[in-house]
Fold these 3 entries.
Entry 1:
Amino acid sequence: MVGLNHVTGLRCVRCSSTCALSEAAYTCPACGGNLQVEYDYDAIRRAWNRAALADDPDHSIWRYASLYPLATRIDSPPIGWTPLFPVPRLGERLGLRSLWIKDDGRNPSASFKDRASAIALLRARETGHDLVTGASTGNAGSSTALLAAALGMRARSFIPRTAPRAKVAQLLAFGAEVLAVEGNYDQAFDLCLAATERFGWYNRSTGYNPFTREGKKSVSFEICEQLDWHVPDLLVVPVGDGNIISGVWKGFEEFHRLGFIDRLPRLLAVQAEHSAAVVHALEGDGTIVPVPGETVADSIAVSTPRDGEAAVQAVRASGGFGVTVSDDEILAAITEVAQGAAVFGEPAGVTPFAGLKRAVEQDRIDPGWTIVLLVTGSGLKDVASVMKVAGEPRTIPPDAEALNDLLK
């Protein structure tokens, strides 16, 4: 079933006004707020149910095509249906009964962002664009480049000059034109936005393009199915721009509206302490105020979260909360997750574990909850940060006696 047939329009997360899909490319015509896609859920419910899902042999994001605003799909590379598995040893360290990891570093570009790029780039193609641009700290850009290569489109990415080399290498290998900006992510974002307005390129930037959220919500659909329709009590999500956590919430809400699940999870938003505009808003009056945006976890290093309003709404609607963690805690989580769960995550990817530890210390977690950590990217994305905490190998000559002396 094609989801585009059931799209009813776009709704603004700020002023709640609605418009047709054809009336806005990116933001709300009335107030400039971010938009999200709305569907005729009654019509979808009549044509699609859990039994239909159970009979679907396609284990990728496209098994949920009924809930995407698209007329087409792309079958290669396969995206989504990443593994969700229990990590009891890691849970025992925190005194938790049921801890799980959803490892989205297994996607084709080794990042969660492939989910968003697939939907956004297909939307670009369906609306007649052949060049896609976007601002990125690296993961969204490399994901865009990968999907552009798969679709025969062009990609042009704006990244901070300090982006990790592994991510830059991916961008270039997939054929993207890379513009390294002498500034931070927020400055790259603003420059990309200005370029889009001047040259008419399709802008895939997170927290600006409403179709990225449509891809990100697919992770929630998968979690519901992979847990045999038992909704987790808590989902722990790293937060930068806020688009992932708002997408996660939209996914659970939509399955709830369709009657696929009977309750909703709480959300725990985790941010680095100097890049915590969303958590500060949650702890205050809900207003997003810019912060320094500095952290070793480049994927969540954001001064002004572009989807912050939707992120705050999502966490509050879920009955959840937010915590902040230091860069030292984030780096320590790399080896803790690797050695306790055999999952190799980049700094932003393991930030949820650092945040969960902090929440346990604050006595805000029920040990009996079923908890899912969303690991959003592979450690191979940022080897330099990993080596800061993993250390260096010991060097020895190729001599058995030298080995014997070393082992003594």
Note: Residues 10 and 37 are 5 Å apart (CA to CA).
Entry 2:
Amino acid sequence: MKGRQYTALVFSMIFWSFSFIWFKIANKSYDPITIVFIRLCIATFLLSAFLWITHGFKGVRKADRKYFLLLAFFEPFLYFLGESFGLTYVSSTLGSVIISTIPVFAVIFAWIFYRERLKLINYAGVVVSFIGVIIFITSGSGTTAMSLKGLVLLFLAVAAAVGYNMVLVRLASVYNPVSIVNIQNAIGVILFLPLFLIFDLKKVIATGIIAESFSSIVLLAIFASSGAFVLFAYSVRHLGISRANIFSNLIPVFTAIFAFFIVGDKLTFRNAAGMAVVIAGLFLSQIGKKEAAVTDIDFAGRSA
């Protein structure tokens, strides 16, 4: 029954929406590098267990090792550095809106690198999405309502995700999606380990385990990095990537609602209007797309 796949999709988007809020809670006691490192460790363990139970482990071909290294460098390493530090300067709602533009940029770079042609309405969607972001992040006077540093870091995350997507095209047809994410997370643990040991280890020891913040990291690992991906992969297997991908437009909507009730983020009429325009642009950018490389790209953008 299709209802199961659609239910799985909705819950995966809810989990990803909560990830922005869980990060804000975890960040009360722990620095971004600590949050990401522990999150990746837990997620790698969970996904490895999942692959072991389902007999999904597959060896990596020697020729593909460099691509996995580049993949992990883009995401989770650069992506989580940009997203995690960026979220320390902006609201969880704004963060989710900016991150939700990843599919739009993926479309642009897919055309640049793979010459995939899109309809005029798709390019119009790109422009509309940018207008929506500008509306959302500016106050009534037309000035930005948050730190420029936060914006730069979040768009670094977007750029890293697009780079990740371009590399993933080479691997998606050969390896199981869960295996790809598990390998990239394992490499990510190795990449983040020196940063954690140098910058955060002493502070973590001094801070200890703060129940509320640490539980949020566990929730990030279980639901955002593991559960959401498995649910999304399950839905894609039955519905196809394009049909499942459109549900990602629900993320900023869910995040805004949850952030309003849980962490007290303000949601003005201008914010709501900006979000509506962004979401409309994302829908337009995906109308009539061909089932080609970009479908694999879109699937990758939310996998970690």
Note: The chain has one domain: 2-300.
Entry 3:
Amino acid sequence: MSDTVYLVIIFTAIMLGIKFTKQLPIAVCCGILATITLYRINALEVLKISAYAVIDKVTIYTVFAFYGITFLQRMLERRQDLKRAQKGLDGIFNNRRINVSLAPALIGTLPSAGAVTICGAIVKEATNGYLNKEEQAFVASYYRHIPESFLPTYQSIIIGIELSGVPMSGFLMGMIPMVMVLFTLGYVFYLRKVPSDMGVTQNISKWQAAKEVFCGLWSLFLTVALIMMFNLPAFAAVLVSIVLNIFVSRFSWQEISPMFCSAFEGKLIISTIIIMVFKDILASTGAIVRMPELLSRLPIPAFLIFILIFFFGSVISGQQAINVIALPLAFSTIPGGGIPLLILLMCTGYAAMQISPTHVCLAIVTEYFGINMGQIVKKTIPVILSFILCLIGYYLLLGLFI
């Protein structure tokens, strides 16, 4: 049987694993078992590959980055810095539309599924009478997830950067136009229905409000700045922010010590390690190396093929899994793809996740607003299809200059 058939079976195994268990680690293990069985990899070789994957630099850096980000999140929660930043935004803009979009986006700078309920409360309070429940759920989820399209505080971005070898700073700079497109599309489709006037008079100066925003989020700003300006690994940038935050926010040992345990999210770390093991086991079969020749025979451009692969793959198995499976394949198929290709693929996966049943935030936000998954997906599809059309145009434009 051909590699194509084998890969379809492996994808199907992951899809079925997610469908019946709702657990990404178990689903990826199904993919590992399917790969081992189909390619007849012996047990000793599997153990050897798995051991190397666990101690690989990419795996270690990724795990440390996730732990550090979660630790920093605990610190911000302890000082209520995210709520402080949101109040500061009210004082700066006194604009309902800006608050409804920017506050969830700022809250979304940290990878916490539970944060979507905070966004939901903000959106519901500001848009009652102007948007229905389905539209409120869309706005809360959509704007909260915009940072997930590009920030290195998210697992999929870190994995994508590590696997592609593209500089983090170049990726972040290249994503600025697409982030602007995301904000604009949300406004065009839904947010324009909301009046801009807050209906209240702010008794705080703009300067003081801006100070509140900065004081609430300075550690996040610093983390991103260190990555962009000095190309620091994500875990190192977060570590610097954590150490400085201990002194700036005057954390006591009694406050900090419980965070060493609470920041250790075992499920996330185990999921990361299993994904890395799967990546290396699949790579050992040689299927990824052989696939570009097969794909080159199809009568459509290679980048369109990968848009389809990343979109449907992310909907079915999640963006993390499709990054591991298809990102190395894409970069070997399109030599010199660089920043434009990474932006194309990461944005496609991000867009697909906004309608994916594997996206836990969608389950949380639909429950919060009392709607079902189909209702929010219906509101989301026109926006993400428009986004992908803009994305294709941007990719072709970048290809002329990079």
Note: The mean pLDDT is 84.
